[in-house]
Amino acid sequence: MASLPYHEQGITQLLSLTSFLLTLNGSRYVMDHLLYCGLLGEIVIGIVWGTPLAGTTWLSRGVQETVQSLGYLGLIGLVFEGGMSTSPSQLRKTAVMSVSIATVGLCLPISLSFLLLVFPFSNGTNRAQPSPLAAFSAGASLCSTSLGTTFAILSAAGLQKTKLGVVLVGAAMMDDVVGLMMVKIVTALGSGDFTAWAIARPIVSSFALLLITLAITPYIIRPLFHSTMKWLYDVSVSENVEKGDIEVLSNVLKTMFGNLPHLHFILATLALIAFVTIAAFVDASVLLGAFIAGGFVKNLGDGIVSREAHHGGEDPVDKSAEMYGKYYHPVIAYILAPFFFASIGFAIPIRGMFDGPVLWKGILYTILMMFAKAAVGSAIYVDYLLRELYHGTCRGQSHTNLQEQAPHLPAAIISLAMIARGEIGFLIASLSSSAGTLTVQPGGSNASDMAASSQSIYLVITWAVVLCTLIGPIGVGFMVRKLRRLEKPHPGGAPNEVRTLILGRWA
């Protein structure tokens, strides 16, 4: 009979796990206070404790794979929280800006990646340039934005509910959907099975899931759900009234479900599981499914109130935020999210990245990819210039409305936040390497030389993903510190008013 025998764990493994978890949280606390960038410390701890430096000395291969799986649950939880904290009305209002930023952030990295064609890579006794297929694969790896990093940055900076945060979430979410399409493209290019539907299906499925949810939630699910919750919380029929069998059954169901402990947590978790499962089944973005689930739960949340609030005994509160803070936040903030960022550190092949040619090419390519993503801030300036031009031609407005503060700080935050690549970048780079798309142009080299060149290209791409994932959040941290300094000279004003004064229309 199959079973897993129970063994008492050795003190070495217990101390390794304990020190790993404590060091993750300690490093996040320190980096959050220094740079508003706790995830940087967690990535470094993943490098040190995991395969890149320690191998399997401190954490076995099985433990690291378990941490990676649990970390992905943390990523889903971060995105779920982002969906609950994002205003649907703000998301609709900023859709054009989000699309503009996402488009620039997708096209420029792929376009500039073709400059890799001029970089010579050692090919045994010869030198050869990467093939156009390798350049496209590199661009595909660097066109995405780390969704988990984005939500971690916004949470640490307290910008989740600002217009700036909503724009950033929308652009990062679109990058995630297109990044999923890039995974399909790279896999298809490697296998030779390239069909239009295989490439388009992730985007079609993702947007279909979003549009269907937006269509049926306010008109069908929300009214039905609120009616059901009202029925569950209604006062039971007086016992003096003779009740039939159906009425007795009805009151039994009311008692069972109306008094069910942790009802909101159970329903929210079931919704999250359902949306993530549907997204995976239809080949859509799982993270988009988690984001939609967060918005769905938030939209229905005010239908779940306590019995006292329902009958006027207390004021209703935001039950979705209360539920997340009570059940999800402690586990995700202190265990699962640190595991996710540590698993990014596990994926960095640090030992092979300091070869001279790989190092300088990696740094140059990083600079290119940072510029490619930082250029998304131009969309903020274009919006500002268009508004200034429009107001300048409108004579009916007062002079005070003609001037608007230049959005230097919002543009800098958007640009730096979009630089971080993270999990999807590592995934596409790894798939490109295993699929054989990181090739060099034909030059008569043998198979072993071609494999060495492919590995060098992979390490250059990895350098860019790693440095962008580190530099982006650090830059945002400095911008947030500047924002905090600007807020201090206004101690008498309300926090929202002060932030509006500094960020302008992006507050």
Overview of the structural elements:
By secondary structure, the protein is mainly α. The protein is built from 20 helices and 2 strands. The protein has helices at residues 11-35, 38-49, 61-85, 88-93, 95-112, 132-142, 147-157, 163-191, 196-233, 245-258, 263-281, 286-301, 307-310, 319-346, 356-374, 378-393, 408-419, 423-435, 447-487, 495-503, and strands at 121-123, 126-128. The protein has a two-stranded antiparallel ribbon. Strand 1 and strand 2 form a beta hairpin. Helix 5 (95-112) packs antiparallel against helix 6 and helix 7 (147-157) packs antiparallel against helix 8. The termini are far apart. Residues 235-242, 305-311 and 398-402 have low confidence and may be disordered.
Portion in beta strands: under 5%
Strand order of the largest sheet: 1-2
Strands, count: 2
Number of helices: 20
Q: Overall 3D geometry?
A: globular
Structural class: mainly alpha
Radius of gyration: 26 Å
Protein traits:
single chain; 507 residues; mainly alpha; globular
